Amino acid sequence: MIENIGSSGPVRPERASAVPDERDGADRVQRLSRVQPRDRVEISERGRALAARQELVAWLQAETGMSADAVAELLARVDEGAYNSPTIVREVARRLLQSGDL
To answer: Phi and psi (nearest 5°) for 93?
Structure first.
């Protein structure tokens, strides 16, 4: 008599289940292949852009300690092109060089 670990009693050969026939596996595969496809979720480009912007806002707040309003104002100015002038680009480049961040 062989004792099963975690069972309530000995293993009885007369109660053992039969070894499945290979055909049983083929039938199972056919049944599984008829399973309906699962739902899918697709995120639009706009949704991805919004998520990226939220990550940027969170990063700016964490790195600079800026308030949400200040971050929103800064991003609005960037969006409207306030920093797209050669004068601003030169000043940013000068400050980056001075800070040693490059």
So the answer is: -60, -45
Cβ(53)–Cβ(59) below 8 Å: no
Number of domains in the chain: 1
How far is Cα of residue 28 from the mean position of the Cα atoms in its chain? 33
In a domain, 52, yes or no: no
Looking up tokens 């929103």 gives 72
- Domain range holding 102? 66-102
Question: Is the overall model pTM greater than 0.85, yes or no?
Answer: no
* Domain assignment of residue 60, yes or no: no
- For 40-97, write each residue's pLDDT tens digit: 889 999 999 999 999 999 999 999 999 989 999 999 999 999 989 999 999 989 999 9
What tokens does 38 get?
């699962």
